[in-house]
Design goal:
With 226 residues, the chain is α/β, with parallel strands linked by helices. It has one domain: Rossmann fold, CATH 3.40.50. The protein contains nine helices and eight strands. The chain has helices at 3-14, 37-42, 58-66, 79-91, 107-110, 138-147, 161-174, 195-201, 206-213; strands at residues 18-19, 48-52, 71-76, 97-101, 116-122, 148-158, 177-182, 219-224. An eight-stranded mixed beta sheet has the order 1-4-3-2-5-6-8-7, sandwiched between helices. β5, α6 and β6 form a beta-alpha-beta unit. α1 packs across α4. The longest helix is centred in the C-terminal third of the chain and has 14 residues, at 161-174. The N and C termini lie far apart (44 Å). Bound molecules: S-adenosylmethionine. Residues 53-55, 76-78, 81, 103-105, 122-125, 205-208 line the site of S-adenosylmethionine.
Length: 226
């Protein structure tokens, strides 16, 4: 493994804002923060917002700076990417954000029923050949339902026509409640969105910058699944 990656992994072990659980599922070992993120980590009762597939965590960090009255958790399997966001939070004293290194597939292992208020999916892989691996496929949405509070919102921001179209199809097919949708976010931010939401839609991730530079329109939708 590259030296740089190893250094990042070592550093992250020292930081209290990164969790890299290694649970023995055979022994039914429970994740200690499941159901206790607020009580034992954030030490407040604020709403919990997840960024799934957070990469370098720009959205989680950007949101945490905007909303000091909410708690944010970025989740991704790639440690070297999480390192970037976690380092930013450590160096800048951003205490309402944490990072969880794991597959999103196991989200119900890490969060208790109704522990989560909101979910952001930022530039998720469109998975053209493996639709079931898309983070808005039914099996993932069913997992999110288990951890979201009733009325919890899912946001999707993407460059991908394929992912956006398939998500809108899932919304239609399963009767989710679509609250906002636009095929060209920066061309037509909906007028009736409140100023704070408009502001946070302008937070740009690493992948958003890459795709914007290539001329892709950025799509956005938000929906409820109950
Ligand atoms: C295209 S990148 C986007 C990263 C970041 N959100 C951004 O916009 O820059 C997709 C990220 O999702 C993560 N990812 C995809 N599927 C995942 C899964 N099932 N579990 C955990 N992470 C996943 C990848 O590791 C990768 O960092």
């Amino acid at each position: 493994m590259a030296k740089n990656k190893l250094r990042r992994f070592r550093e992250m072990k020292e930081w209290s804002n990164v969790f890299e659980p290694t649970l023995s599922l055979e022994n039914n070992e429970e994740f200690e923060l499941k159901g206790n993120w607020n009580k034992n980590y954030f030490q407040n009762e604020n709403p919990i917002v997840l960024e799934l597939g957070c990469g370098k965590g720009e959205y989680a960090i950007g949101l945490a700076k905007h909303f000091s009255n909410k708690n944010f958790i970025g989740m991704d399997i790639k440690g070297a990417r999480i390192w970037v966001g976690a380092k930013d939070a450590v160096e800048n004293g951003i205490e309402n954000v944490a990072f969880l290194r794991s597959k999103i597939d196991f989200i119900t292992t890490y969060f208790a029923p109704a522990e989560v208020d909101e979910i952001w999916l930022t530039f998720s892989d469109p998975q053209p050949l493996k639709p079931r691996k898309r983070l808005t496929s039914k099996s993932f949405i069913d997992r999110y339902r288990q951890v979201l509070k009733p009325g919890g919102i899912i946001h999707l921001k993407t460059d991908s026509d394929l992912l956006f179209e398939s998500t809108l199809e899932e919304i239609e097919e399963h009767g989710y409640n679509c609250l906002e949708k636009t095929w060209n976010l920066y061309g037509e931010i909906p007028d009736d969105l409140d100023a704070r939401t408009k502001d946070i839609l302008h937070i740009k991730t690493h992948y958003e910058n890459l795709f914007t530079a290539k001329g892709f329109d950025i799509k956005y939708c938000q929906f409820k699944i109950d």
